[in-house]
Design goal:
The chain is of the alpha/beta class and 878 residues long. The chain has 24 helices and 31 strands. Strand 6 and strand 7 form a beta hairpin. It starts with 6 loop residues before the first strand and ends with a strand.
Length: 878
């Protein structure tokens, strides 16, 4: 090897990671500059080469630059390469394969360039070694020719296999993430060794494993070999000594285990094996799980993940649905920060908000974006002692005057003189409970490789945590770069934040307590403090216990942070609910009902409907444009539900919230839960079972309360037919009114069973009450001809596309033909109550063979409904 170091060195890396690699080199005490894309230049000897190969986490290779020269044609390339003293680098038996690339250059044929360089190096070696025989049986010295814009760069590869091959990952998933990129993702985050980390798409566990290795200061190249180790004249002691130092610098296991989860439990076996080979089994935990089920009670964590892109895994619509569900999970982690690497172009649209930062990175050949959503900063402070505590701690001990011969002096009670006011911090944390959980001291909120802090965080009320118990272990190579990083980042980093690379984060000291201010000032106490306490006595007094530090969240949550406008809306909502509840306080009792409507979009910006069922609340949201992102809107709904419960003194567990979305195309209302929990409610002297949790509708349409009473009034001795019977509330009313028989028809077997249970709850069941599970049209077609029924209720849906029928139902086009068929089964003078929620329904009275067709909508809408057009209803007499 040439005896004239330092050599020109290059750390090759993926596009977008140059600044991170430069910082890694600075942490090793190596000055570097960023050159062209994917190249970081520095200088050094073979100790520097060994150190870079051993410690660089985000670089792919360490190269020695041999020469750089113009090469617009093959003659220039060949002759300049041949002129180099290759014999100083490659021994006579050295193996020297040639790799190459050409970008935006005249010499476009890479194989031709490789052959030209190979011939030139052969000629040079024959010249330098004075031999014609080059067996290439010795150590490998890989030569690389890179031509960019007609400028050729010749380098030697000191690394061998790429640096991302740490040696621990032999089991990989179907969409692997390079270790170097995983380490870069962690470096660009706010994660530190004393903070939680979660990867819900962990696959083979690369991100948690790399983070654990970083947190424990484990050299990434500790368990692999490098190409330069086999080169002549390179002392093996260099790398041997560096490996020993690296092994001694490994820190204790992390204070808390890092978490990785994946929906495929089989790949987790590979992740556990990888963690064992990496030596971080005690620091990581893998478990099967869906990202939609992610939750954590830990604070100030980082979720760092590489979700599926929709390119190699899954289909785009599936990925979009998956991404749209993630903010609903992240809003429950208000102090966390979140980082996603993906190539999915509609990522931010699916999330419903823009990322705080974006960074273009490459996962192999796939162009990706690293989306960063930054949570609040953890800030440490010390609780301020009360005036009594300060006086007690600072008052000197006085002898007992009444018994001066006592061998055990008794401390005098502190005098009650009022201490003078002291300066207090801007934000004073509340005094913690004894049962508060322990938290680590607040780390810096500046990523190690990217120091810009979140723009203009909004201060939120302090969140009390518990005293710090663990101090980070000292001494990684990155600690050496703390000062230089702090200077470089000074333009971007908040002046109150400690250096991001500092292994022992600094916490602002609490305000000093001035004894002269806080100690009661009397002549006796002054004399006691100056004269009675000798130096030896003062030294023997126990030192005050160190004040514990508490962690507070300062700034907005990354997902779901609400503005002051939401709080104002909650106040309006509570005021309106209380006013309505007061107005209706006696009305339900007089009418014998326990379920009624309290609120119906009374305040336009709060488009909710609130119904009360006994001591339960059922809230429904109707779609309306707003300026909240999905996570904010979910938190807004939770706030409104909580406000309703508090305003009406309803327990939290008895408040149910549903989202009513307008159905389009082939969509249908889906079941929202599986509790099968039904509660009894009272109406008109009858009992009905309602389910507030599982369905968008509860099982009892409150807007038909008056119509049901009308049916009961005329039901005595009648044969009653209930079409689209749902849960049979009309049937129960007709039976209680003395109907001779009832027939209830619905396509849903579940609803038919529910209707029977409602009859049983009122002791009205019997053989005269029939339940038919069938499509309404099919029932009419199969019915025996003849006038059978005296009273009919037909309350169809506006639209239905049930999978159990061949045709869709549209009330405007299908209602009149249905009524014509129903009239054939009705006796002369029989009554049909027809109702629909379609406000623009046009009744064609002339098409019906009826003596009377009257709209009675104004009479059937209950008085507790603000919306007087909640439904439309007709009374049809044959």
């Amino acid at each position: 090897m040439p005896a004239n170091p330092p050599y020109d060195l290059i750390a090759a890396c993926a596009f977008g990671l140059e600044a991170i690699v430069k910082r890694e080199l600075a942490a090793l005490g190596i000055e570097a500059t960023i050159g062209e894309s994917g190249r970081v230049h520095f200088q050094g000897d073979f100790t520097t080469i060994a150190k870079a190969n051993l410690w660089l986490r985000c670089a792919d290779r360490v190269l020695i630059r041999i020469a750089e020269f113009p090469a617009a044609d093959f003659d220039a390339l060949f002759e300049t390469t041949k002129a180099i003293q290759w014999g100083d680098w490659i021994p006579v038996d050295g193996e020297f394969p040639v790799t190459g690339r050409s970008v935006k250059s005249t010499l476009t044929s890479v194989p031709a360039c490789q052959r030209a360089v190979k011939r030139a190096v052969v000629d040079a070696l024959q010249r330098d070694h004075a031999t014609e025989d080059l067996p290439e049986t010795g150590a490998q010295v890989k030569v690389d020719i890179a031509i960019l814009k007609d400028v050729a760069t010749l380098t030697l590869d000191t690394t061998g296999r790429s640096l991302h091959r740490r040696g621990y990952r032999t089991d990989i998933s179907s969409a692997p993430l390079k270790e170097t990129l995983a380490a870069a993702m962690v470096s660009l985050s706010y994660w530190r060794r004393d903070r939680p980390l979660l990867d819900p798409f962990c696959g083979s566990g690369t991100i948690p494993i790399e983070a654990a290795m970083m947190g424990r200061n484990m050299a990434p190249g500790q368990h692999r070999n490098f190409a330069f180790e086999d080169w002549a004249d390179v002392s093996p002691e260099i790398l041997y000594g560096l490996r020993g130092e690296a092994l001694q610098g490994v820190l204790d296991p992390l204070p808390q285990r890092l978490l990785g989860s994946d929906i495929d439990p089989r790949i987790l076996r590979a992740a556990r094996d990888n963690a064992e080979r990496a030596g971080v089994t005690a620091d990581v935990h893998f478990e099967p799980g869906d990202v939609r089920d992610v939750q954590s009670k830990r604070r100030f964590g980082c979720l760092i993940t590489n979700p599926p892109y929709g390119m190699r895994l899954g289909r785009d619509w599936e990925i979009e649905e998956l991404y749209a569900s993630i903010p609903q999970v992240l809003r429950h982690l208000p102090t966390w920060s979140f980082y996603f690497l993906t190539a999915f172009g509609q990522f931010e649209n699916a999330f419903g908000r823009k990322a705080d930062r974006r960074r273009k990175l490459y996962n192999g050949r796939i162009e990706c974006t690293y989306y960063q959503f930054q949570g609040p900063k953890p800030v440490a402070s010390t609780p301020v002692a009360t005036e009594t505590e300060i006086a007690t701690e600072t008052a000197p001990a006085e002898p007992n005057v009444a018994d001066s011969n006592s061998a055990k002096p008794i401390a005098a009670e502190p005098k009650q003189a009022k201490p003078e006011p002291t300066a207090t911090p801007v934000s004073t944390p509340p005094k913690p409970d004894a049962s508060a959980e322990a938290e680590q001291a607040a780390p810096s909120e500046t990523p190690a490789a990217e120091s810009a802090s979140p723009a203009s965080p909004v201060t939120t009320p302090p969140i009390t945590a518990t005293p710090e118990s663990n101090a980070p272990a000292p001494g990684s190579p990155w600690a050496k770069a703390a000062a230089s990083n702090a200077k470089a980042d000074n333009a971007k980093v908040d002046s109150d934040s400690p250096s991001p690379a500092d292994a022992s984060p600094k916490v602002a000291a609490p305000p000093a307590v001035d004894d002269s201010v806080n100690t009661p000032k009397t002549a006796d106490s002054n004399r006691a403090s100056t004269s009675d306490n000798t130096p030896s006595e003062r030294e023997s007094q126990p030192a005050p216990a160190p004040q514990p530090k508490y962690i507070h969240a300062v700034g907005e949550a990354a997902f779901g942070a609400l503005t002051d406008k939401a709080a104002h809306q909650a106040e309006l909502f509570a005021t309106r609910l209380k006013k309505r509840a007061k107005h209706l306080r006696r009305w339900p009792t007089k009418r014998g009902i326990t379920c009624f409507r309290l609120y119906e979009r009374d305040v336009p910006e709060i488009p909710l409907v609130v119904d009360r069922y006994e001591n339960h609340l059922h809230l429904s949201e109707f779609e309306r444009p707003h300026d909240r992102d999905p996570a904010q809107h979910a938190n807004w709904l939770d706030l409104m539900a909580r406000t309703a419960g508090e305003a009406l003194d309803v327990p939290k567990q008895n408040v149910y919230l549903k989202k009513r979305i307008r159905q389009r195309g082939k969509t249908q209302h889906q079941k929202v839960d599986e509790t099968e929990q039904r509660i009894p409610v009272k109406e008109g002297g009858l009992t009905f079972l309602v389910n507030l949790a599982d369905y968008v509708d509860t099982g009892l349409f409150l807007d038909h309360r008056v119509t049901r009473s009308m049916v009961r009034e005329v039901a005595a001795g009648k044969n009653f037919l209930n079409l689209f019977s749902y849960t049979g509330s009309f049937t129960s009313y007709a039976a209680s009114g003395g109907a001779a028989s009832t027939t209830s028809v619905d396509l849903s077997a579940n609803y038919s069973q529910w209707a029977q249970e409602n009859l049983q709850a009122n002791n009205l069941d019997g053989p005269q009450h029939q339940f038919v599970t069938m499509d309404i049209g099919e029932f009419i077609r199969r019915h025996k001809p003849g006038e059978v029924y005296d009273l009919v209720v037909c309350d169809p849906p506006t639209f239905s596309n049930s999978k159990r029928t061949d045709q869709d139902w549209n009330v405007q086009t299908d209602a009149i033909p249905l009524l014509l068929d129903v009239l054939k089964l009705v006796k002369p003078g029989g009554i049909i109550f027809f109702s629909t929620n379609f406000r623009r329904f046009k009744m064609d009275a002339d098409a019906l063979a009826a003596t009377e067709v009257h709209e009675i909508s104004t009479q059937t809408v209950p008085e507790d409904f603000r919306n007087r057009r909640i439904h439309r209803c007709w009374r049809i007499v044959k």
